[in-house]
Amino acid sequence: MRLRITFLMTMLVLFGAAAYAAQSPEKRVVATISPDGVQRVEMTGGEYYFDPNVVVVKVNVPVELKVKKGEGITPHDIAIKAPEAGINFAEGLSSKPKVIKFTATKAGKYPFECTKRFLFFKSHKERGMHGVLVVVE
């Protein structure tokens, strides 16, 4: 009986630690408008994270999102599906930075994520690789 209780307590601690580690802490960046009228943001996508994972931009101001893949061999991408706001892209990430250009036409919160998934495993989104684009007036 004592062995079962010890085993159950150990499992609870391990699962609790894993659940805590899977939560992505918020890393927020607010884009500033450059003299040329463009908002520029740099983002890295790595082993099940985006940094930053909250990006704030102004509506109707062009955005250049410079994305790259962090260390590791796992393939990743970034996707936002919000055509109603003029934002609709999916780009694979590589160690060479890519610039994604768009202009958000509607204020709101738009989720982004990595759409990759390995067979029989949780998706990258489920493992914490997601965030939100906040478009403000």
List keywords for this structure.
four-stranded mixed β-sheet; 137 residues; alpha/beta; 1 helix; 15% helix; Immunoglobulin-like; elongated
What does this entry look like structurally?
With 137 residues, the chain is α/β, with parallel strands linked by helices. It has one domain (25-136): Cupredoxins -  blue copper proteins (Immunoglobulin-like, Sandwich). The protein contains 1 helix and 10 strands; from the N terminus they run αββββββββββ. It has one helix at residues 2-22; strands at 28-30, 39-46, 49-51, 54-58, 63-69, 77-82, 87-92, 98-102, 108-113, 130-136. The strands form 3 sheets. The chain has a 4-stranded mixed beta sheet, with no helix packed on it. A 4-stranded mixed beta sheet has the order 3-2-5-8, with no helix packed on it. The longest helix has 21 residues, at 2-22. It is elongated, with a radius of gyration of 18 Å. It starts with a helix and ends with a strand. The relative contact order is 0.20. The model is unreliable at 11-21 (pLDDT under 50).
Instruction: Estimate percent helicity.
Output: 10-25%
CATH topology: Immunoglobulin-like
Order of helices and strands: HEEEEEEEEEE
- What is the distance, rounded to the nearest whole angstrom, between the alpha carbons of the first and last residues? 61 Å
Shape: elongated
* pLDDT < 50 runs, ≥5 residues: 11-21
The biggest sheet, with number of strands, parallel, antiparallel or mixed sense and barrel status, is: 4 strands, mixed
What is the annotated CATH architecture?
Answer: Sandwich
